[in-house]
Amino acid sequence: MKNFFKALLVVIAISLTGCNQIDSKKADHEVASNKAEKPNVIIFLVDDLGVNDTSLAMSKSKTLYNKRYKTPSLEKMAEQGMTLTNARTNAICVPSRVSLLTGQNFLRHQVKGDIVPTGSKSGIFAFPPAKVIDKPQNMLPALLKGQGYFTVHAGKYHVCHHCSKETSPTPSMAGFDVNIGGSFYGGPGSYQPVDEYGNVKQPGRLKGLESYYERNMHLTDALTEEAMNAAKDAVKRQQPFFLYLAHYAVHTPIQPHNKYLKNYTLTEGENAQETQYASMIEGVDASLAYVMDKLEQWDIANNTMVIFYSDNGGRVLGRGKKTLYGDWQFNFPYRSGKASNYEGGNRVPAVIKWPGHVAKNVTNEAPVMIEDIYRTVISAAGIKTDREDVDGMDWSTFFDGKKIPPVFENRAQYFTMPYHFEGQYYNGDDFIEGGVEPAVSVIHNNWKLIYFFTDERFELYQLKSDPSEQHNVVKEQPNKAHRLADMLNEELVKHSFNDIMPVYSKSKKSVNFPTEAYKKFSMR
Fold first, then answer.
1. Mean pLDDT score of the chain, rounded to an integer?
2. Which of 80, 354, 451, 511 is at 20 to 30 A from 382, Cα to Cα?
3. 219-236 and 273-297 are packed helices; what angle lies between their axes, rounded to 10 degrees?
């Protein structure tokens, strides 16, 4: 019995998916409780879910968007666990997903997706090809599989953009026994069964879901049901399992999750897709409910750690100008969104639940990162590592909810966007030459320095007093800016970041590293 109570099902809810046609109330009487010695692990990841894109507030008071969206299952999870109100990721999906599966910060792994040289539309920059994961044996599913886990992937894999098994590890190569709908594509093509989830135009794009077409089931629902069917097989065998449920929602294409569409109305001037977007969010929450109900039915809920997370900040591009706040303020009070190194691109909702281990109904402001999930999971699974190439930190040090350990309080966080992210219908301050401009940034002790490559300029913000990043104090705080530039420079040099640093197309010279760039900037 001792091992039974130690067993945990780590449900990492990085995302939410909807299950409008799944009857989660049907009991699985044939499933016995999983009393395996090792804990089960589930990672639940949402794609592009912004910090305000739930009814659970990530701050002391609810925003207008928190009041619009309906995610009761996530709110229930928060009541049973801990809300992480200071959670961040990289600003774009591929680097974040690689960080989750490797435990490495983007500065170290340098996997940004493109494996061929690219450039900005304006021609200012040429971007060297990215690196790819070179040690799949160290990826999270491979480590867990080596410890006897049954490993399942469902949803968006996307650790390289339009790559192949010759250039990047497939789900199987990463250690997954089962792959449901995962590939190197970043979006599904369609969420609708009538389109075969996009396979009508691109046959075979999402594999393993063909039986759901005739059931008229939304992609979010299909992924959820199929994922839990795979997990159920492991429970029957009394085998520990790892389930990485990485939803495509709420990534584009923005399409209605029809059961929930009636729950939302527009304010004047909003893009018509905003109600569809809201329905997708509620559908993801229904997916979370389905997962949680199954854990209860299988009598393994008390062995379950649940971590809910998103892969990057909420989308601003393509959603129109009108928001419930000012222009392009979808992630209010945080600035900008996906692909940007402003807080709107890095801040995400996060919750962790683990009965008997994680304090209930509490919030914690520890500065956590998506790469921490790797370290937290292997620690919970009893896997020890002394590898120096793991940047993630173990959250178990603050599971009691009483205080933030000094190692987290003093943490330096690094974010990188080393290419031009192109988009439409957005004209924010960080939208340059047809896209969100490339940058790197560092946060330390509530100070944030952003180094923009376009004109090698710096911006400095005091996040505690100015979370919206409206007051650039780089000129008023030159010593602080200089120190942070040196910190950033040291990390870039340590990880040989010059290999993928942008190159000016005309001069053929790489963008200066932060220390040299700051010297020139400070004399302007």
1. 90
2. 80
3. 10
